[in-house]
Structure formats: structure tokens, C-alpha cells
Amino acid sequence: MILITGAAGFIGGNFVHHWFERSEEPIVVLDKLTYAGNPQTIAAHVGAGRCTLVQGDIGDRALVSQLLQTHQPRAVLHFAAESHVDRSIHGPGEFIQTNMVGTFELLEAVRSYWGAMAAEAKAAFRFLHVSTDEVYGSLSETDPAFSETTPYAPNSPYSASKAGSDHLVRAYHHTYGLPTLTTNCSNNYGPYHFPEKLIPLMILNALDGKPLPVYGDGQNIRDWLYVRDHCEAIRQVLAKGRLGEVYNVGGKNEIKNLDVVQVICRKLDALRPKADGTQYEAQITFVTDRPGHDRRYAIDPTKIEREIGWTPAETFESGIDKTVRWYLENTQWIDAVRTGAYRDWVNQNYGARA
Ligand code: NAD
Ligand code: DAU
């Protein structure tokens, strides 16, 4: 079996669905169930008995050790993190605690478990760390895309905390020989994405008749990757990745934020036209920029394509179509995540923006 941290969240939850479409190997999920964790996302697998959800903190070394002893996983896949850049600007403490201290405690528990394994199991064991392209900093429009050798230059408390976790994982491989793999991925989108992030926020605000808040001039570029393509990349890196190596994962979809929002608006015009005949684009509002806003991210996926044989299956056109349709059809999941805590966040982040 495999143990996954943070799989009640967006990417981890999609990974659980992706896994059970291809494997019967059971999963144990360790998730703190913060505001971003929703047990409903993986409830079908938990109900069917192939997935066990344990509510707990990756920073609780005793709990992690007990889970490792009880379930004897052949791999640990580490998705759990505080993941939202804007929240890290308003309150960096949780990001340091979970992403750095939590990853350290997790690594210590795993190191001890792995160290005591029998030789064959020890050789087969893997610790796969899921990280981000944001650790490489910001590109200008003409800079080459991030590769695995691009120097780290994180600009937000979020990306700095993820960079810290990456360095710890690297050090545990080099110092203790822990069989690690690290993936650094670009912006994901797709089903079960918490509506604090650009794409789900724009879909839901548009449908609610609310402003579509584009930061700054809307010309910042992200490299969008459909979440199931990311899940497949992780599955393949787990199976075929070279120990201690880093693999960058990208969608070859560099798009300006304003263009992303316009694509969403046009998709909604077609699928859910407004009763008054106006277009969703009229709801776009330019608001005060994110402090320290990175201008451009782009991934050079040559290494994962060459060594692992992975390439993304979705284009942005096909992926955004699936995504918008999913949000139109899954109102129960959406209503459940838009709790009081979510509404407080919206007031905190957008209330003070001009
Ligand atoms: P998310 O915020 O949707 O989910 C995070 C999950 O981790 C939640 O279920 C939450 O409850 C859990 N969690 C938080 N703190 C925890 C703790 N201390 N102990 C146990 N569980 C805890 O995040 P996501 O978008 O699914 O991202 C998953 C991983 O992928 C993160 O490591 C993130 O840095 C990385 N990543 C995300 C993207 C993206 O576009 N979303 C891109 C590249 C990398
Ligand atoms: O690059 C990978 C990263 O992608 C992950 O490591 C992070 O966990 C994930 O949250 C994401 O970070 P971003 O900051 O790029 O994603 P976000 O959806 O918050 O913002 C995408 C872009 O849209 C960014 O340039 C800021 C802009 N934006 C965002 C919001 C929420 C807006 O213009 N308006 C908004 O309301």
C-alpha cells in the first residue's frame, strides 16, 4: 500500500481518483483537514474500503510513525502543504509550520521507518515530494523556461517555505540515502480545485454575478497543467524516477491571466448564457496587484519527457472545457467548501483591494 499526505485537497484528491482507475493497491491518507481539505472529494473510495482517511498533522511525528508501523507502506507521497500564495502574504506562520517544520517531522518519521526495513523492502521504498515551479522565482517574457538546474529564487512566503522543504528532501537523500523523488510542477487546474485559486474563483464569481478580480494589469503568465496530467506524471515518476532526482512538470500552456479569464467567460457564455443577454466579460474588474507578484512561470519539461516518457494529454482548450463543465455540474461539492471560513477569507483578501 501507499501512504499519501494531503489527499483531501485538490491535487491529492484527484490523485486518489486517478490511482484507483489504474490500480487496486490500497491507500492511507493522512490529512489535517484544514479549510482546503474536503473528505467528500475522496469519500467514494473511503466508503468502498480501499482508502483509509486519517485526520492528523504531518508535523505529528508520533502519529506518522504509528501509521507507518501499522500500514507498512512501500511509498510515501507527500502532497500536504499550505498552498495559497495570497494566504501566505496575509499570514506566513502556518506556511513555515506545515511546509517546512511539518515536512521535517515527516522526513524524520520516514527515515526511522525506512532505516529499520528489511533489505528488499528498503531498496524498493520511495519518498515522493510534490513541489512547485514557484521555487525558481519569476521569469521575464524572454527568459528561458525553468529547468531542474535553474537556481532557486523564491519570492513569496509560500514559495520560500516550499523551497525550504525541497532542500530538506534533497539533504535527506544526500546525507542519509533516503530514496527520494521530487516533482516541481506548474499551475494545476481541474475538478475539486478550492475556489480561492484563479480558475475556480472566476467560474464561481461569474455565475454569482460578482466582479472577476484580475490582479494588476492581468498580463502575468502561468503555465497551466490539467490536474489529471499532473497525477499521471507523479504516478510515472514514482514507478520510473531515478533516486534523488528532481523532475519539472509543465503543461506547455503559457497563458496571460486576462486571457484565461476571457476564455472562461466565453465558455460560460456558451454553456450558461446570462438571462439578461450580457456577456460574462463585463464582470472583469482590475484590482490592486498581489505584493511581489511573480510575472511569469514556464516549465521546460524535457527531462521528464526524455527520462520518464510523460507528456500532458490535455490542451488548455480541452482541459478548461472539462473544468468549467465540472463546476457547472457539481454544485453540492461547491456549496460544501464555501463555508463561513471561506467567506471570511474573501472579505480579508478582496475587501481592501481597490
Ligand atoms: P490544497 O491546498 O488544495 O490541499 C492541501 C491539503 O493538505 C489539504 O487537504 C489540507 O487539509 C492538507 N494539509 C494542510 N496542512 C496539513 C498538515 N499540517 N498536515 C496534514 N495535512 C495538511 O493544495 P493542492 O493545490 O492540492 O497542492 C498539493 C501540493 O502540490 C502542495 O504541496 C503544493 O505546494 C503543490 N503544488 C500545487 C500546485 C497547484 O497548482 N495547486 C502546483 C504545483 C505544486
Ligand atoms: O505555479 C504553481 C503554483 O500555482 C502552486 O505552487 C500554488 O500552490 C498554486 O496556488 C498556484 O499559485 P498561483 O499564485 O500562480 O495561483 P493563483 O490561482 O492564486 O493565481 C494565478 C494567477 O492569477 C496569479 O498570477 C495571480 C492571479 N490572480 C489570482 C487570484 C486568486 C488574480 O488575478 N486574481 C485572483 O483573484
From TrEMBL:
Positions the record marks as coiled coil are none
What GO molecular function terms would the record report? dTDP-glucose 4,6-dehydratase activity
Q: Which InterPro entries match?
A: dTDP_Gluc_deHydtase, NAD(P)-bd_dom, NAD(P)-bd_dom_sf
What is one GO biological process annotated to this record? nucleotide-sugar metabolic process
What general EC class does the enzyme of this chain belong to? lyase
Question: Which residues are in the NAD(P)-binding domain?
Answer: 3-323
Sorted alphabetically, the keyword list is: Lyase, NAD
Gene3D superfamilies from the UniProt entry: NAD(P)-binding Rossmann-like Domain (3.40.50.720), UDP-galactose 4-epimerase, domain 1 (3.90.25.10)
Enumerate the cofactors the protein uses: NAD(+)
Known Pfam families for this protein? GDP_Man_Dehyd (PF16363)
- This entry's Enzyme Commission designation comes to 4.2.1.46
Signal peptide (from-to) = none
Query: What reaction does this enzyme carry out catalytically?
Result: dTDP-alpha-D-glucose = dTDP-4-dehydro-6-deoxy-alpha-D-glucose + H2O
Family matches, as PANTHER family: DTDP-D-GLUCOSE 4,6-DEHYDRATASE-RELATED
Q: Which family does it belong to?
A: Belongs to the NAD(P)-dependent epimerase/dehydratase family. dTDP-glucose dehydratase subfamily.
**Name used for this protein in its record:** dTDP-glucose 4,6-dehydratase
**Naturally occurring in which organism (per UniProt):** Sphaerotilus montanus
